[in-house]
């Protein structure tokens, strides 16, 4: 199961997420959305995995978004995609996905969901044993 991380070079959360993935030996491929814009297929995949749609992935406090002065709820998918291609910094970052999960932003507890289930089960058993021995 390969993880894809859509990152931005100047984003500290992206750097933290990349470091975490490396430290936990999780295979990933990185795509810097500022230098390699999303494809329409990637954008649709990300959007389909969100619970809150565009609210989850658009950084409404970003200067790029504020300067546009548009109501994204009134845009078609194609129009929104065109705007994001022109202004990739209006996406929150990082966006981390695999076949089943998405995480927007870096959260040290939530990112653990990308650790394979077997490893998480092993870690839980080890912690439980340590707690019982104490």
UniProtKB/TrEMBL annotation:
PROSITE patterns in the record: ARSC (PS51353)
InterPro entries assigned to the protein according to its UniProt record, in alphabetical order: Arsenate_reductase-like, Thioredoxin-like_sf, Tscrpt_reg_Spx/MgsR
Family (UniProt): Belongs to the ArsC family.
Organism: Lysinibacillus xylanilyticus
SUPFAM superfamilies: Thioredoxin-like (SSF52833)
Phylogenetic lineage: Bacteria, Bacillati, Bacillota, Bacilli, Bacillales
A Pfam family annotated for this UniProt entry: ArsC
Name of the molecule in the record: Transcriptional regulator Spx
